[in-house]
Amino acid sequence: MDSFCTWRIVEIRHSFGISMLLDVEDLKVSFHSRDGVNEAVKGVSFQLDAGKTLAIVGESGSGKSVTCMSLTRLLPPPPLCQVSGKARLDGKDLFNLSPKERRQVRGKQIAYIFQEPSTSLNPYYTVGNQIAEAIQYHRDDVEDVEKEVVNLLDQVGIRDPENRAKDYPHQMSGGMKQRVMIAIALACQPRILVADEPTTALDVTIEAQIINLLRDLRERLNMSIILITHNFGIVDEFADDVAVMFRGKIVEAGPAETILANPQHPYTQALIKCIPKMGAKRERLPVVDYALLEE
Asked: Of 11 and 290, which is predicted with more confidence?
């Protein structure tokens, strides 16, 4: 994506007094194996404002998760994985940090909610213990860790938090496990929360509850969010800005309202056309014509 396609971000932010928190420039990620080199991310650039939500949208395999995991180097070490480019958090390049500095960024500055809570939570420990571990590692200011665990579970809407903190993951529903994952992320009081498909495998009612919870937390804590998703319905409800990824590149970016109302790139147009609409009678939803996109 060229500099013009970033819709003159720097000029717009300065004119409106908007504070840029994260600035990613020409990010490239490649994986090396015996079969060769796989370029997963090919020169991606985007910005995230303080207190705002950026949605990174695209199909599976487009490079969304790898892009965000590279920010804190949650990827295999070199030479298995090579990361280049710049990622500045408050002007400080995340890729030039020492291992100790990087550990301080993980969780405390940038926290993650991963796709599947059932595989992210440790089945051998209570959810309270797993939240407490994050608090003990990153927050020396907390004197009563158990009380803070209960407070976090209450914040994410889990009833009877004192008793539920003693439960193991298998004793909770999918929606409750996702709330626990959010509580673990919030335990470190991060400035940026990366929500990687936070409503995957959840029914529509629980999906709405999780999105409403994230929206409420963002407003109360003045937290920035990067939302990784393929669901434009969530984008419409929640995101301020959108970056559309296709095969490792951002093909279109801008304010969510503008992108949804008037998408310019054929891939964005195809994704939006695939959204089912109430009352629309179709034999089947449109499919993305990849041959057309390659032209």
From this structure: 290
pLDDT of 86 above 50: yes
Instruction: Determine the Cα–Cα distance for residues 3 and 260; give it in Å rounded to an integer.
Output: 21
Q: What is the DSSP string of 242-293?
A: EEEEETTEEEEEEEHHHHHHS--SHHHHHHHHTS--TT---SS-----HHHH
| Domain that residue 271 falls in | 4-109+190-293
The pLDDT tens digits for 98-111 are 999 998 899 889 99
> Which two tokens mark 97?
């940090």
Q: Which token pair is 6?
A: 């970033």
Identity at 202, one-letter amino acid code = L
Tens of pLDDT along 50-63? 999 999 999 889 99
**260 within domain boundaries:** yes
Q: Can you tell me the distance from the alpha carbon of 25 to that of 47, in angstroms, rounded to the nearest whole number?
A: 9
Domain total in the chain: 1
User: Model pTM greater than 0.90?
Assistant: no
Q: Is the dihedral of CA 219, 221, 224, 229 positive or negative?
A: negative
CATH number of the domain encompassing residue 17: 3.40.50.300
